Amino acid sequence: MDWVEKYRPSHITELVGNRDVIKRMVEWAQKWTPASKPLLLYGKPGIGKTSGAHALANDMDWEVLELNASDQRTKDVIERIAGSGSTTQSLYGAKQKLIILDEADNLQGNADRGGARAISSVLKNARQPVILIANDAYGITPEIQKISEKLQFKAVQARSIASRLKDICLWEGVTCSEEALMILAQRAQGDIRSAVNMLYASSIGNNSLTSQDLFISKKDHRSSIFDLVGAVFGMKEDQNPLQMSYEVDETPDRILPWIEEQIPKIPDISGQNRSYHWLARADRYLGRTFRMQYYTLWRYASALMVFCVSVPKGQNIRFRVMPPHRRNRIATAKKQQQIRHAILSRLADTLHISQAHILEEYTRCISFIAANDPKTFAKTFACDKEQLFYITGDPELAGSVMAEIEQEEKKRLESKGDEKIKKKKQKKDEEEQGPVLTDQTKPETRDQEETPLSNNQSTLFHFGV
């Protein structure tokens, strides 16, 4: 049996490293309520994120429902599995049901389309504890990050890994020298899973291990986009940025926005101009690549980006690498287009004018009317806060007007509800008291005398003189 699975921690106390993070996980679980935020565990692979979530569930007597990247994570699948699971109780008698969404930062593929939106909806409506696990926190959408409590798992120290390997050797009856254990721990680079796998491979057919008996494979370490950007701008010395550009799990057209985002941080204006110049040249090669479907040109684009876009010599700068905001700007522009289309469509249907004509001729006039009487305008065209802000251009005015309209609607519904309650009560009282006889409902009697007509009263057959 694989030693990684055989010796996977079953309890929180068996986890190696990250004691402060584990303590906060336990506190979150003990104080959990439906109003609590979900946990977002992030860090490099193999350092105990998923194992920590399962060990926490075991200690808390929670059932686990896990959905990882190997599953098809479309919007419908996530809503059916994680959505229903997060609002229902366990069938196995567990106190709670822990929802684990592993590799939550890997939701950009075609099969995962709509998954991020579904996860956000699940987190808002969850009635069970939820833990998201990601290797890269920047891969999580900002909406999910805002409603989550983030905990970072860091690489485990070599001496802690060596201590864990020593326990495994004791349980398996394998003798291993301290030097060999430390070599394995250091070669793993903080990855416990990699260290255990190397120990397992070295122990096959050997009951005693020394440093010469070790089967050490180079850890499969792929450079991240953060490592590449740091190397491009001189923050990581003695590294080949071009080789790193081949190792990162990003295509050149996705690397370019990351480099573009960091250029304004170059203190020298001439350095910024030179970097933008060469980045524009690289963008030309990318355009030719997609236009001609000749992907050999990617190597030229990569070389221009990583070698020509750089910090001038003699300037040693340090800054925090941030993800590109271009996607956020594109999303914001798309949202503005949707708002504009919605309000123009409503105006066109009401005023019987085409959208293009309204946009070209009557935009300023309509904006003036809306700013002069925003409340009436919002009620007439059923605008929401964003649409009213788009027309008036005043966010405070739009917010106050919509709050006033919502308050009036709330009072109207309350009064309508009170009126229904009053009618029900009146009907109930009438049923208990029985029918009430009035002059109109009293039965007529045959002995009732007719009222004589007055002298000045006329009928068809009686004419007074």
Descriptive report:
With 465 residues, the protein is an alpha/beta fold. It has 4 domains: 3-152, 3-Layer(aba) Sandwich (Rossmann fold), CATH 3.40.50.300; 158-213, Helicase, Ruva Protein, domain 3; 236-308; 326-397, no CATH class. It is built from 19 helices and 7 strands. The strands form 2 sheets. The protein has a 5-stranded parallel β-sheet, with helices on both faces. A two-stranded parallel sheet has the order 6-7. Helix 5 (115-125) links the parallel strand 3 (96-101) and strand 4. Helix 16 (355-372) packs across helix 17. Residues 108-113 and 457-465 have low confidence and may be disordered.
CATH superfamily of the largest domain: P-loop containing nucleotide triphosphate hydrolases
Low-confidence stretches: 108-113, 457-465
Order of helices and strands: HHEHEHEHEHEHEHHEHHHHHHHHHH
Q: Based on Cα principal axes, name the global outline.
A: flat
Strand order of the largest sheet: 2-3-4-1-5
Descriptive tags:
single chain; 465 residues; alpha/beta; Rossmann fold; Helicase, Ruva Protein, domain 3; 4 domains; five-stranded parallel sheet; two-stranded parallel sheet; 19 helices; disordered C terminus
In short:
By secondary structure, the protein is α/β, with parallel strands linked by helices. The protein has four domains: 3-152, 3-Layer(aba) Sandwich (Rossmann fold), CATH 3.40.50; 158-213, Orthogonal Bundle (Helicase, Ruva Protein, domain 3); 236-308; 326-397, no CATH class. The chain is built from 19 helices and seven strands.
